[in-house]
């Protein structure tokens, strides 16, 4: 955090000088605003990042021709911030603006074009549109495989991102194969405490988590956390995601005090760092509810599941798989409380959403059908 504070102090001093000495649309002012925006972005203060990236963009839009590559960079920066905030429709809007420019100004095999395709694929992935996500990831991969050496980090990013989509589709063996390819490149090309390595460890951990191998998952999550605790400020939202992951492993293993310890660390961060309808806050409430449910405290479980669902209903499209999970969780709490009519209502909603948003062979659909069948016997 100290490095960020010093950098911010330096950038603000520079900006002060430029604002006094230069006209309001001078390119150097735009550069200063952009630098400060990027710093806030790295610190996880996304509202401040948007403010300064927006100021930089206004100057560029006045000073540059409409298809200038620097405008594409600004649109990508703003799109990425909206992506990190969970505002995916705005993220897609700005990422597509960037793509329009780079498709007109760069050759068809340029690595920057691959980055734009990759950004858009990431947004579609988070909107649960797996087919569109794979379409744009494949465009990106085609470029980087032809244009770059086999150990280039952009290739690792492509493998990693495509693996994430296959994981979302429930194809865990294909996902693991691609995550391993990505990790091998990263371990050769990066220093041992690089955040990208932590992201790879986290992704493989999440995959093992989905496969039910919780000890392996915990090992990878802890590797990731060790790196991020060294390189991120203590209130960064990415740390909350790791605390959530580790808490979940302890929950699966029945160690509820450790699960609460990590979930509360995550909740403390997201309540301070993110806006009140951010999906990561919903995740924190959902996780705490799960521990209460496993401990048999169904009234507390219901309280936190409902908090989580309210956020998801505001922040996500109506057929997002995460809403299916929320309805399923609430349904199972009502089932455990003996309220079978309420349980049936929520489980039916869950299954309807899952069947609309997931491939028919996805493991989640089977679990939800089993839950419905169980209710029908009551």
UniProtKB/TrEMBL annotation:
<feature type="repeat" description="TPR">
    <location>
        <begin position="282"/>
        <end position="315"/>
    </location>
</feature>
<feature type="repeat" description="TPR">
    <location>
        <begin position="30"/>
        <end position="63"/>
    </location>
</feature>
<feature type="repeat" description="TPR">
    <location>
        <begin position="156"/>
        <end position="189"/>
    </location>
</feature>
<feature type="repeat" description="TPR">
    <location>
        <begin position="72"/>
        <end position="105"/>
    </location>
</feature>
<keyword id="KW-0677">Repeat</keyword>
<dbReference type="Pfam" id="PF13374">
    <property type="entry name" value="TPR_10"/>
</dbReference>
<feature type="repeat" description="TPR">
    <location>
        <begin position="324"/>
        <end position="357"/>
    </location>
</feature>
<dbReference type="InterPro" id="IPR011990">
    <property type="entry name" value="TPR-like_helical_dom_sf"/>
</dbReference>
<keyword id="KW-0802">TPR repeat</keyword>
<protein>
    <recommendedName>
        <fullName>Kinesin light chain</fullName>
    </recommendedName>
</protein>
<dbReference type="Pfam" id="PF13424">
    <property type="entry name" value="TPR_12"/>
</dbReference>
<feature type="repeat" description="TPR">
    <location>
        <begin position="240"/>
        <end position="273"/>
    </location>
</feature>
<dbReference type="InterPro" id="IPR019734">
    <property type="entry name" value="TPR_rpt"/>
</dbReference>
<feature type="repeat" description="TPR">
    <location>
        <begin position="198"/>
        <end position="231"/>
    </location>
</feature>
């Amino acid at each position: 955090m100290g490095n960020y504070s010093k950098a911010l102090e330096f950038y603000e001093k520079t900006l002060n000088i430029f604002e006094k000495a230069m006209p309001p649309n001078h390119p150097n002012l735009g550069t200063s605003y952009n630098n400060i925006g990027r710093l806030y972005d790295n610190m996880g203060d996304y509202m401040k990042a948007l403010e300064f990236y927006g100021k930089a963009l206004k100057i560029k839009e006045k000073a540059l021709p409409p298809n200038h590559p620097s405008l594409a960079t600004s649109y990508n920066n703003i799109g990425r911030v909206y992506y990190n905030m969970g505002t995916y429709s705005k993220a897609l809007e700005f990422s597509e603006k960037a793509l329009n420019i780079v498709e007109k100004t760069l050759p068809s095999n340029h690595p920057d074009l691959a980055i734009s395709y990759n950004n858009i694929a990431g947004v579609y992935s988070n909107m649960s549109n797996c087919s569109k996500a794979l379409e744009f990831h494949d465009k990106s991969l085609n470029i980087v495989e032809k244009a770059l050496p086999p150990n280039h980090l952009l290739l690792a990013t492509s493998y990693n991102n495509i693996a994430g989509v296959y994981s979302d589709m429930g194809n865990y063996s294909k996902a693991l194969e691609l995550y391993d390819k990505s990790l091998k490149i990263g371990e050769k090309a990066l220093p041992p405490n690089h955040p990208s390595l932590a992201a790879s460890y986290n992704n493989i951990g999440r995959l093992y988590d989905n496969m039910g191998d919780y000890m392996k998952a915990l090992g990878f999550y802890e590797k990731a956390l060790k790196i991020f605790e060294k390189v991120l400020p203590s209130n960064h939202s990415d740390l909350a995601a790791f605390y959530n992951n580790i808490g979940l492993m302890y929950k699966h293993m029945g160690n509820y005090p450790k699960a609460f310890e990590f979930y509360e660390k995550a909740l403390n961060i997201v309540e301070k760092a993110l806006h009140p309808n951010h999906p990561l806050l919903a995740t924190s409430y959902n996780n705490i509810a799960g521990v209460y449910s496993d401990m048999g405290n169904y009234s507390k479980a219901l309280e936190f599941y409902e908090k989580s669902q309210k956020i998801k209903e505001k922040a996500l499209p109506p057929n997002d798989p995460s809403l299916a999970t929320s309805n399923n969780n609430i349904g199972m709490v009502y089932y455990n409380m003996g309220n079978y009519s309420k349980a049936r209502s929520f489980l039916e909603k869950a299954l309807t959403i899952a069947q609309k948003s997931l491939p028919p062979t996805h493991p989640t659909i089977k679990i939800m059908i089993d839950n419905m069948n169980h209710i029908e016997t009551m």
